[in-house]
Amino acid sequence: xxxxxxxxxxxxxxxxxxxxxxxxxxxxxxxxxxxxxxxxxxxxxxxxxxxxxxxxxxxxxxxxxxxxxxxxxxxxxxxxxxxxxx
Length: 86
Prior knowledge:
With 86 residues, this protein is mainly alpha-helical. 84% of the residues lie in helices and 0% in strands.
């Protein structure tokens, strides 16, 4: 269980890092495509990890799940901001 939570936290950090980098580089930069691809892969990984955690009937850390929900909202806002910039 702790290993799965550590993976989720690592993916969360990576997503925030990728979005920050996307905000900081110009839309014409060739690195944008790679960042978008990495972002997509990490979003899928996060979703999969969270679904597995929710499916575990023994997991009951409501605070952690609420923080993940809040982070999801933050990621959506940052993604929308990046899309508007592009």
